[in-house]
Amino acid sequence: MKLSPFVNRFIPTTLLLAGFLSHMASFSQIIQNNDLVYDENIQTVLLYAGGDQLAPPVIRLGTNDRLSLSFDDLSNTSYLFKYTLVHCTSDWQESNLDPMDYLQGFFEADITNYQFSLNAIPPYIHYRLTFPNNDIQITKSGNYILKVYVDNSDDENVLFTRRFYVIEPLVKIDVDIPYYPKNLEFVRKKQQLNLVLFTPDLFNSEPMQRFSVNIMQNGRYDNMKINLKPTSIMLDQLNFDYTDGIVFDGSNQFRNFDMKSFYYQSMYIREIINDANGYNVVLHTSYPIATKPYSLVDDINGRKLIQARQGQNTNTEGEYAWVEFWLKQPKIKDADIYLLGALNDWQLNEKSKMRLDSRLNMYHGRMFLKQGYYDYQHAVLPHGETRASTTPIEGDHWETKNQYTIFVYYREKVPEYDRLVGYSRFNSFDVSTE
Does residue 68 register a pLDDT over 50? Predict the structure, then answer.
């Protein structure tokens, strides 16, 4: 079968497994409280509330809410994986609480639900877990890290980590996005959030010092507003009235591609190549749209939906493919371009980094992805910085349907930890005012 001129030589799947040191890693690694995978054989880690893949990993304390975890291990031998939960501060540092302060039952447990794939290339084992469960229950609200490992939770044995939230919905959140922001330079571009909190009497001790707010746009952590403090207080009302407001780039609707089936080429897919090593999917070339008028295109706010075609069991029959991304874009000086979205857990790292092909004057990226539907954008990250911008390639529009999540924390004194006492998730179109 003739390869597309846009495809680099297909890397056999066997190379993905080459050099694998089993799950007993013999190298040192530093574990972060982040959504990261530390073992190259672990793919498609999903953590969500209930049975809805698109639901964020958020549960309410003291309820029957459950989180669903699933992932694939590109091995032909099953392992006894273990997991534990780690309580964190509002800025994702490990808290001073002892596990017995926030967990009931055991402090770690086994993942025993797994299935071998059927006729998939490469073969894999699909693991599933639902928690809290009879083994582990949670007694405190706040930010948490799920840690999955072999043998013990020492850093060298950790396979991946995932963030999730346990909330106590005690604080009322009032928010709107005005058409005219405080800084008129942002008109028709940026989205300003006007925020007010209404707190019950039980939080009347030092509210200005103990309350803090984090605000997330879509699933991004790199541009998250963190540790926002009230600017004034009136009885039970906390105001966040900053000079320029709480401002995010409007950005644009996400690009997407539908890879649920390899039997046909959906929109935005240029070519599907199948050989003995598996699948290679080549997307149509993307172009910058920063100077184009805003166009409302339905998206899922940068998320992904892992799903195979009808008649397939996605868990065990879903196939993997190397997906080729091309962007017609001259070199951007002193900056790199990344693919941004849940397809790489919103990480700006080597997996999502695009490389410039100077011969074609195009940027190229590759990702190993399971069948499904994916949203993504192109983000520019200046050298030496951690916050990327989609504006240079995607544009900046007030009308964009972004999804925002507000997390409200209250610092308890005894024991000292950050309670997650307020939570709101909304679409910018739903709360905007004239």
Answer: yes
Pair of tokens at residue 407: 């997390």
What digits encode the pLDDT tens for the residues 344-373?
999 999 999 999 999 999 999 999 999 999
Model confidence at 4: pLDDT above 60: no
pTM equals 0.92
Q: What are phi and psi of 48, to 5 degrees?
A: -155, 165
| Measured distance between the N- and C-terminal CA atoms of the chain, rounded to whole angstroms | 57
Could you please state the CATH topology (level 3) that the domain comprising 18-167 is classified under. S-adenosyl-L-methionine-dependent methyltransferases (2.20.130)
**Which overall architecture, per CATH, does domain 172-248+399-433 show?**
Sandwich (2.60)
